[in-house]
Design a protein that fits this description.
The complex is a heterodimer of chains A (263) and B (289). With 263 residues, chain A is an alpha/beta fold. In chain A, 33% of the residues lie in helices and 23% in strands. Classes of the chains: A alpha/beta (263), B mainly alpha (289).
Chain lengths: 263, 289
């Protein structure tokens, strides 16, 4: 029997009041794959992330992680089941230091009351702190771990958010515009870093507008438009797809033809 | 020690424990404007157990803590359904309900109040205040404390980190209730008398001010805020009735100059000796520490 995909969505629907934001979306992300999720503004990309991570509940359809249904699970249990994510706008905790932010990402690795009640901040050599500092270094973030996050550059904060998301040892990492605001060198470094993580078995689902980054990182792409899936297939085929071109360039005639998939 | 000085110290200890009862839930993003209600629960539990049931100090004080903690735990489930200003109003209403209930309850002496026979000596008060202080510092250093602070910063992001936000907030509110209850019990045993009128909304506002003006980012804030605001009226006593004006002006000035509180996390970080040691030794090398 073939292994279950890391993530599978079957007929997922979501509406806010009378507005349908996700319509009958189905796709699979194989384990270890690097998948991009693109689409024009308002296509429902972040909503889809929120549905998968459990911030919103689906109205219909199912979400499977490694073959197990999670659509009714609260967010914190989905994190324990192996889903981790970053946010479109950096959501580091402003009053926590760099290393505290990263250690926050380890929360789901702890079991029971013992680790919850041991004085983490007083143990400068605890394995949690060492792990956080090593992860920062291996991601190329050479800064004082006790620094205030507010004092750091945008690019560094963005990287810290990725490191924090990796701390829970996820099997599926969802990144919402990780390259936005990074310079070309930082973007290239991020792609190399994420590829190395994927080689170690991590599955990636990435929302991104920077198409050269998407081409560099992701072998497959899905395209959303007005909450519907209009393309899934190799990243190389995106630009030649008639529906995708219509969605981005705005030809109403082609865009309303229906949800054709080119998989 | 003079009677005056030991009296001021007793009030300082009680206020300090009370302030940490407000600080702990606030560190997890919950503003409790019903502090007097929790203190009243502690005070009246102690008063009843001491005067009517005739129990000893070592039983009445823990029982008062337990009662306030239990009610804090139960109330938190209701209060946590509200957000922001509505949470403030809900906790405020709770405080008023407790005071109103005690005022009208013959069981607890009504408007006459209750006499508390057993007196607590100053050294025990100081020990209790020190224990609460250390416990709060310990709590804020744990992963639970980290989770509390993260909820205060960004609740939605904390949920995505896998934190059980509801459980952490209920815990914080329960611990806060226990501390406020302890302060009430010690108040009852120090003044040997309780009356419902004392536990009014001004008391809730004052204790909240201790924490807000001292700073709610670290456990140092309530210490500084409480010491300052307990001792300031005593210092201003020499100016007669003008002391209330001075007190008010001090509050307004501090709110204007330091809206985030006198003590901030960044300030504690800068002054921390631990931070200086590796930085001086390993200057210029990133991996030197």
């Amino acid at each position: 029997m073939a292994a279950s995909p890391a993530l599978a969505l079957h007929g997922v629907n979501k509406h806010f009041g009378g507005l349908s934001v996700i319509e009958n979306v189905s796709f699979e992300v194989p384990a270890g794959a690097r998948m991009a999720l693109i689409g024009p503004n308002g296509a429902g990309k972040t909503t889809l992330f929120n549905l998968i991570s459990g911030v919103f509940r689906v109205d219909a359809g199912s979400i499977l992680l490694d073959g197990a249904a999670v659509e009714n699970m609260p967010t914190r249990l989905r994190v324990r089941a192996g889903v981790s994510r970053s946010f479109q706008n950096i959501r580091l905790m402003p009053h926590l230091s760099v290393v505290e932010n990263v250690m926050l990402g380890q929360h789901t690795l702890t079991k029971g009351l013992g680790p919850l009640l041991s004085p983490l901040a007083w143990q400068r050599n605890s394995r949690w702190r060492r792990l956080a500092e090593e992860s920062l270094r291996s991601a190329g973030i050479d800064i004082d771990p006790d620094a205030d996050v507010a004092t750091l550059s945008y690019g560094v904060r963005k990287k810290i958010e990725v490191v924090r998301a990796l701390m829970s040892r996820p099997r599926l990492l969802m990144l919402d515009e990780p390259a936005a605001g990074l310079n070309p060198r930082e973007t290239a470094e991020l792609a190399i870093f994420l590829k190395s993580m994927a080689w170690e078995g991590l599955t990636l689902l990435v929302v991104e507008h920077d198409m050269s980054f998407v081409h560099d990182l992701c072998e497959r792409t899905i395209v959303l438009n007005f909450g519907r899936l209009i393309y899934q297939g190799p990243t190389g085929g995106v630009q030649n797809d008639e529906q995708v071109r219509a969605a981005y360039l705005g030809s109403r005639r082609v865009a309303t033809k229906g949800a054709h998939t080119a998989a | 020690m003079s009677g005056y000085l030991s009296g001021v110290l007793a009030v300082l200890c009680i206020n300090l424990i009370f302030a940490y009862g407000i600080f702990v839930p606030m560190a997890a993003g919950q503003i409790n404007l019903g502090g007097a209600g929790f203190q009243a629960i502690g005070a009246y539990t102690t008063a009843w157990l001491s005067s009517v049931a005739g129990l000893q100090l070592w039983l009445t004080v823990p029982a008062a803590m337990l009662a306030a903690a239990l009610i804090g735990c139960l109330i938190s489930f209701l209060v946590l359904r509200t957000r922001g200003v509505y949470m403030v109003l809900a906790t405020f209403a709770f405080g008023e309900v407790v005071a109103g209930f005690l005022l009208r309850s013959d069981f607890f002496g009504g408007a006459i109040g209750m006499v508390v026979p057993v007196h607590v000596a100053l050294p025990l008060l100081v020990c209790c205040a020190a224990a609460v202080l250390l416990l709060t510092f310990y709590l804020m250093a744990t992963r639970l404390g980290l989770a509390m602070r993260s909820i205060n910063d960004d609740e939605a992001a904390a949920i995505v980190m896998g934190i059980n936000v509801r459980a952490v907030q209920v815990t914080a509110f329960t611990v806060g209730g226990a501390f406020a209850g302890l302060s009430g019990a010690l108040y009852a045993h120090s003044f040997n008398f309780v009356e419902a009128q004392y536990f009014n909304s001004f008391l809730s506002i004052y204790v909240l001010l201790f924490v807000l003006i001292g700073g709610a980012q670290t456990a140092w804030g309530p210490l500084v805020g409480t010491v300052f605001f307990t001792l300031l009226p005593e210092v201003l006593r020499i100016s007669g009735s003008w002391r209330f004006v001075g007190f008010g002006v001090a509050i307004v000035l501090m709110m204007m100059l330091r809206p985030q509180g006198v003590i901030t996390r960044a300030m504690v970080q800068r002054l921390s000796p631990r931070r200086w040691a590796p930085q001086c030794a390993g200057a210029g090398t990133w991996h030197g520490g």
